[in-house]
Predict the 3D structure of the following.
Amino acid sequence: TKEAAMIRKLERILIAVDDTPSSVAAIDQGLALAAGEGAEVVFVNVVSIVGEQFVRGEGKPERVPDRAQTEVLIAACAKAEELRVPCTTELLIGYPAAQIVALADDLDVDLVVVGSRHLSGVKRFLLGSTSRALIGGSTRPLLVVPEPAPVPALI
């Protein structure tokens, strides 16, 4: 039925992580969904290469050999373990949006979770927006988690 098609169980969630506050929010939201659905999580950290977005890739994830880890991947898995959410990690090299899309397709994930930093026009142009590129480039369901609002200082 149409209703059954609308209710899709999440079995594998891909969460993109880096060292930004929006990434922490994405991890928290993704893990909450995974815990509620009984899903496994794959954390991905992409080491960016300047200019890589202008080179045509083969559509395959560019994995770092030997299952290397970064601090953000280790911290994300520790959070998942606290919540008893099964997790694995992937460290990739290249243009983040392209690598995340390639990995999502390679692993056949049900959802991609990514943070959004709310960059201004000039910064977005210079640094790019991974979340915006994913909206236009991914065929997978995507959850974009905004960066938490700064807490006003008490005077």
